Each structure stands twice: as C-alpha cells, then as structure tokens.
Inverse folding.
C-alpha cells in the first residue's frame, strides 16, 4: 500500500500542531520559572537584612540570671472549683 502525498501532508500538519503546542507549553513554563526566580531573588535580597536585624535584636535581649531563676515565685495560684 502506498501512501498518497495528501495523506502524508495531513499527518505532517497534525504533527506540526502538536509540536507547536508542546513548544508553547515549554515557553510558558520557561517564562514562569524566570519570573519566579526573579521574584524570589528580589524577596531574598530585600527581606534578608530585616530578618538578620530581628534575629540580632532578639538575641541581644537581657536574660534572667541564675539567681533570678532560683528565687521562689511571688505569685500564688488558686484553684477555683465550680
């Protein structure tokens, strides 16, 4: 059986459409990844100094000494029964 040139053109045209669909999908995901990379990089660069500043601030806070930890509490707790 010999394939005619018209049926070959139809099959080739369908393959071209499928190829273009895959190409469009690849280009879409490439653009999405580039945009995501830029957004995350900008967020990392702009937010990292603030995160470091907050960590430094919370680390520098005054802590209770051992003597203060050994003192009995001055608060009395009462249990209420209903």
């Amino acid at each position: 059986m010999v394939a005619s040139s018209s049926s070959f053109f139809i099959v080739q045209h369908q393959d071209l459409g499928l190829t273009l669909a895959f190409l469009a999908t690849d280009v879409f995901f490439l653009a999405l990844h580039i945009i995501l990379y830029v957004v995350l990089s900008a967020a990392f660069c702009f937010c990292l100094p603030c995160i470091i500043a907050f960590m430094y601030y919370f680390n520098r806070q005054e802590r209770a000494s051992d003597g203060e930890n050994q003192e009995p509490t001055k608060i009395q707790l009462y249990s209420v029964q209903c």
